[in-house]
Design goal:
- The chain is of the alpha/beta class.
- It has one domain: Alpha-Beta Barrel (TIM Barrel), CATH 3.20.20.
- It has eleven helices and nine strands.
- Helix 3 crosses helix 11.
- The chain is globular and about 45 Å long.
- The N and C termini lie far apart (36 Å).
Length: 222
């Protein structure tokens, strides 16, 4: 991506910035995704990622997008090709998440004017992703490192927005926020067994806890 593309960096969505949580929906079936999304939104999480590794994900994006108000940001995850970017945008996705730094994916997202969050782990990958126009860099897998790693990386790169994702326990959210994270991506620790018929009331409790952890950590950092 050239300098002109970098200058068109799209800011992270207000929903992610405000709540500090991106909910990641993944499952062998998307049948319950609409119900899950309604629960998450009611609990205060308004940035929702539907992963393409879930069967029927593209249709699920369209369905969820049509049911939720425009104040909710619905995006696509596990996007690895520019063709997939076009498909999910046509389906109604408002942002793109990748597991790695894919320049064609980032270019297609920037050209479309939507936020893009590529996955990266090492300083080299993180800086490459940022220079290529990332709205924020998904620090992935976060479970391989820890909040102190994010703080260390941010030292020489204070302008790079980082969103740790992968294996983050609900009780550890505050540690990441206090270390300087823009927000966190939460998958299994948040979704639990909800996609497989699990208790939606329990999902609501986990979602409220996640949002509360971010709020408290931000207050602590003031």
């Amino acid at each position: 991506m050239n300098e002109a593309a970098r200058s068109r960096r799209v800011e992270p969505s207000p929903q992610l910035v405000e709540t500090g949580v991106m909910a990641i929906l993944r499952g062998t079936s998307t049948e319950r995704f609409n119900d899950i999304c309604h629960v998450l939104v009611d609990a205060g999480i308004t940035c929702l990622e539907i992963t393409l590794s879930s069967l029927g994900a593209v249709d699920a994006i369209t369905s969820v997008r049509s049911e939720l108000p425009s104040t909710v940001d619905v995006g696509a995850g596990t996007v690895t090709t520019a063709d997939e970017v076009r498909k999910v945008l046509d389906a109604g996705a408002g942002f793109i998440v990748s597991p790695s730094v894919e320049l064609d994916v980032m270019g297609a997202a920037v050209d479309a004017g939507v936020p893009v969050y590529p996955g990266a782990l090492t300083p080299t990958e993180i800086i490459r992703a940022w220079r290529a126009g990332a709205s924020a860099v998904k620090l992935f897998p976060a479970s391989a490192v820890g909040p102190s790693y994010l703080k260390d990386v941010s030292g020489p790169c204070p302008d790079i927005r980082l969103m740790p994702t992968g294996g983050i326990a609900l009780d550890c959210i505050g540690d990441w926020i206090r270390a300087g994270a823009l927000g966190v991506g939460l998958g299994g620790s948040l979704q639990g067994d909800a996609a497989d018929g699990g208790d939606l009331a329990a999902l609501a409790e986990r979602a409220e806890k996640a949002v509360g952890q971010v709020r408290q950590a931000r207050r602590d950092s003031e």
